[in-house]
Design a protein that fits this description.
Radius of gyration: 22 Å
Distance between the termini: 59 Å
Shape: globular
Protein name: 4Fe-4S dicluster domain-containing protein
Pfam family, one: Fer4_22
Largest sheet: 7 strands, mixed
InterPro entries: 4Fe4S_Fe-S-bd, 4Fe4S_Fe_S_CS
Keywords: Iron, Iron-sulfur, Metal-binding
Structural class: alpha/beta
Strand content: 15-25%
Bound molecules: iron/sulfur cluster
GO molecular function, one term: metal ion binding
Mean pLDDT: 95
Number of helices: 11
Length: 339
Amino acid sequence: MIVSKKDIPNFLDKLISDYQVFAPVKKDTFTVFKQICSGKDAVLTADNTKLPVKELFFPQSEKLYSYSVTEEGAKLETTLDDQQKVVFGVRPCDAKSLVLLDHVFNNDKYQDPYYLTRRDNTVLVGIGCNNPASTCFCTSVNGGPFDTNGLDLLLVDTGDAYVVEVVSDKGKALAEKAGFAAAADADKAAAAKAKEDAVVACQVNLDGLKAKLDVNFYDPIWEKIHEKCLGCGACTYLCPTCHCFDIVDDAVDCNGCRVRNWDSCAFPLFTLHGSGHNPRTSNKERYRNRIMHKFKYFVDNNNEIACVGCGRCIKNCPVNMDIRVVLEDVRGSEARLDS
Ligand code: SF4
Ligand code: SF4
């Protein structure tokens, strides 16, 4: 199937009558995903959005339920967001990040109704990356600029049009509803060429990294690696796979609500116990945890690396910490098994 670029605003306008439609829109010097009221607002030419798509499924701050306690007892009220949504213009790395977050919010022990209701009711339309940024390294972490993992439809930019690839039943239903024309052989060939020409310039060699992390918890390399890090948490908030949160009650007298907020392992209070003990008192321990969580613990638990190589943490770190360099440094260090 194929859709001309000039028809995209009309296509989105039609979707808007049936769905809440989210797309990248311009904000200051970057783009973010926002609900759009007009197809013309979607900006599909920029690099990946500054904030990852995770916030549409796992918001930065979310009321889980409200409660009131009266003489008759306690009353809880909760609302799940079951609006039908289309997220248009998702890059493959962000789509894959949702597959990783599914392990966290939908597993044998726990199914998160807030996240899952949004996931079930959302169609993800991706756009492949013809020109990956210099900070991208998706191919080093089992992804790619045209990877369809997690998507329902993938659009491949062939110049004046997008060739549409159906990935899932949800995607098929949306494409049929849109009535896209069939792609000619020349269009399919142009899409194949675009895929071939897309170069992810940066490759990070992760060979042996997991084996190294399995044994180097006490390696002196950690003393050095974290030195520049300010512990600001920007990398964790902007990371599409970071998912730590805190839950607080906001209450006055007997009425209130329970709210879930993003948290960050970069912050000293993140691990502070009620007893006053804090198992991660230093920045070294916190930075080590960030790397360990993504490249060891998540792999141990889910057999997947919790990084999709989007490069946001590289682009946005105020002191230019580069996770690619950190990983190479860790991989190259000598393991120490003792404490
Ligand atoms: S963005 Fe940079 S300085 Fe801030 S916590 Fe992450 S690595 Fe450290
Ligand atoms: S660790 Fe950095 S490169 Fe990897 S997914 Fe998170 S923000 Fe992207």
